[in-house]
Task: structure prediction
Amino acid sequence: MIVPIAMAMLMGQGTRGMPEEARPAIRVGAVAPSFDLVDIHGKRLRLEEFQRKSVLLNFCAFWCDTWKDEMPELRELAERQDDLNFQIISISVDGTRLPEFAHRVDLELRFPVALDVGGSVSERYHIEHVPTVVLLDADGRIRYTCVAWPGNQVILNQLRELASPRRNQTPTPRTHVSSRAPSRRARRHRKSF
Result:
């Protein structure tokens, strides 16, 4: 399994185009890969800027209807960022479709939307479906992942668990596939970015 991955990386292909079972999955409990992207307003955005905060990464696509559907929940969740000491960062896997997105959503958001032009960050996080949620703790470790938007209550519960004093003992890393089934269109758009 390692040989095909190493060969693909040596040939400059990364893991794209490899069979899904041959790609390494991002591990809950691992240190999150760093990134340096530009947001929709042209501002540079680096993961390191958010040290000492939990970070909710929401990998999305501008063309995907689920992005539009989850926007009211993201806006509501964004109102709690300061109280719960976390930061939402949406990362668009199709960063070149900004004009299309701008017509669909008010760009005045309380969280940044970064453009992953070229897909390098999505590749490092092994994003195969959109939306995918990755929750990082304040130490930069991956503590929760979910394919599809799990809903604000699930995210708030995970954030509270990260903030609890018990967390310093042995955190319970979790990978989740949302019971909220992705739309038919979202299921069709598996790794089509």
